[in-house]
Amino acid sequence: MIEFALSLVFLVPIAMVGIELANLAVVTLRLNQLAMMVSDNVARYRGSIDEAQVDEVMTGVAFAGRGIGFGQQGRVIVSTLESNGQTGTQTGYKITWQRCFGAKNVSSSYGLEGAGATDATLASGMGPSANKVKPVDNSALIFAELRYTYRPIVGTGFMPARELTSLQSFTVRDRSSQTLTNTTNMTDAQRRLCDAAHLSAT
User: Fold this and answer.
1) Paired residues of 166 in beta bridges
2) Are strands 47-50 and 74-83 parallel, antiparallel or unpaired?
3) Are strands 93-101 and 140-150 parallel, antiparallel or unpaired?
4) What is the pLDDT of residues 51-75, one digit of tens each?
């Protein structure tokens, strides 16, 4: 009994760290899956895309991310990237529109809506400097950026809280217009805009 009690001093911390590492791996996997789901689903709408359809995708993220509290602790930023139509030294790509979901107050690390429209700011594409992506000719790219605050389930004594990021992108399929329409006349309060007034977990 004494030996077992003494071993617990070492076994309990090791077990707690193992639990935290396993949970962190699961959360990271789920974030990657959420990012893939968002970018893929937004890219799938053919012909055109509407505010109501983006809202459907974001509602799906809220539902799929409930298990890790994504709505409360995270933010997904969806951008559509296409050619800016400029020539010469201004040739590049632009973020035509950008929509968000989640209560975490962060902005995209790679550009806001309208970036690159009149200059070569995004000439190399969008994403981390060593791994930028860009759309194919005569099409657009959906870029999803997820930011999430990971909170340990056992306690910060075994693993500190940390910021997790997941990036995914998909090429748009058979969409003739990249303009985000609003055929259902959604109000600004209903749309998934990316300003501070639209920080919501639902």
Assistant:
1) 146
2) unpaired
3) unpaired
4) 999 999 999 999 999 999 999 999 9
Full domain range(s) for residue 117: 2-198
Q: What are phi and psi of 42, to 5 degrees?
A: -65, -35
**Residues listed for the chain:** 202
The count of domains in the chain is 1
Q: Which long-range contacts (CB under 8 A, 24 or more apart) does 63-68 make?
A: 64/33, 64/34, 64/37, 65/30, 65/34, 67/30, 68/27, 68/30, 68/31, 68/148
* Sign of the dihedral defined by the CA atoms of residues 9, 15, 21, 24, in that order: negative
Strands 47-50 and 175-181: parallel
Exposed/middle/buried for 33, CB within 10 Å: 0-12, 13-18, 19+?
middle
Q: Give residue-wise pLDDT tens across range 84-136.
A: 999 999 999 999 999 999 999 999 999 999 999 999 999 999 999 989 999 99
8 by DSSP, 3-state: which? Answer: helix
Q: Output the pTM of the full model.
A: 0.89
**Which among 25, 74, 37 has a CA at the least distance from the CA of 169?**
37
Q: Check: CB of residue 32 under 8 Å from CB of residue 164.
A: no
Residues 6 or more apart in contact with residue 187 via CB below 8 angstroms: none
